[in-house]
Amino acid sequence: MTITSKHIDYKDADGTVFEGVVYIPENAKNSKVPAVLVFPAFRGITEFEKDKGHQLAELGFFAFVADVYGKGVRPTERADAFATMGPLVSNRVEKLKPRLFAAFNTLKTFSEVDQSKIAAIGYCFGGLCVLDLARYNAKLKVVVSYHGTLKPIPDLPLDPILETSVQVHHGDADFHIAKDQVDGFHEEMRTRQADFVFVSHAKAVHAFTEPEADSFNAPGIGYNEKAAKRSWKATLGIFDEVFA
Fold first, then answer.
1. Measured in whole angstroms, how far is the alpha carbon of residue 93 from the centre of its chain?
2. What three-state secondary structure class fits 203?
3. Fewer CB within 10 A of the terminal residue: the chain, N end or C end?
4. b/e burial code for range 26-57 (CB count within 10 A of at least 16 → b)
5. Interatomic CA distance for residues 160 and 176, integer angstroms
6. Where is the Dienelactone hydrolase domain positioned along the sequence (predicted)?
7. Which residues on neighbouring strands pair with residue 76, listed in sequence order?
């Protein structure tokens, strides 16, 4: 299938400029198609997220790799990435939320997108992003988090999540996401009456989906091929379900 890709600029309510990447499948020329919003891990948009966008387009989805940091903000060093991410994580309502909805609202402007069939997936920091969209009751059919932070949004009422299915893939050996986060997430989803699936992948540590993770040389960070393949297969399975 022929895939068209292009970089696009967009803004949030504060006027901050972002640069995302869209991947448009050939079948979108003749009819509207389901769309998937992709939120990157802590380094921002890398080749990993771009590859995911391309893979999704090859499967017939309109894919939009979102930029949460801002145009030209692409940290290459781990410390710089955490310094960029930190203020957004520490103020998820005032700083992060507008950036999440800027990406979501931009995706909905494309004529190729079936507005009733939109999903969001995210890795690491991006996993937190998609879970937050579900918490805000964005009009998404499903969100999928891979090794994402699970902490609830401080002081946000635990309103029901009634329209968005939630799928979480967690590394069972991931000590970066502590057991209290896992237990707390389950309690939150129950309280919110959410349709959720939580998969704990044996022997997988943090960043288990990313082939480059082993090169980070960081404790508790590493690629797990089996977990990566299983989580992706489960993702495509729930897409088949909710987009039917």
1. 17
2. coil
3. C
4. ebbeeebbbbbbbbbbbbbbbebbbebbbbbb
5. 27
6. 18-242
7. none
Q: Can you tell me the distance from the alpha carbon of 3 to that of 229, in angstroms, rounded to the nearest whole number? A: 23
Name the DSSP class of 139.
Answer: S
Give the Cα separation of 134 and 148 in Å (integer): 14
Domain ranges of the chain: 3-242
Q: What are phi and psi of 138, to 5 degrees?
A: -60, 150
Tokens linked to 150: 């699970």
Give the pTM: 0.97
Domain 3-242, architecture per CATH: 3-Layer(aba) Sandwich (3.40)
Residue type present at position 60: G
Indicate the SS3 state at residue 84. helix
Query: Is residue 130 helix, strand or coil?
Result: helix
Distance, CA of 24 to CA of 12 (rounded, Å): 23
The whole-angstrom separation of Cα 43 and Cα 125 is: 9
Contact 26, 62 (CB under 8 A): no
Distances (CA, A) of 114 to 19, 55, 97, 226: 22, 19, 23, 32
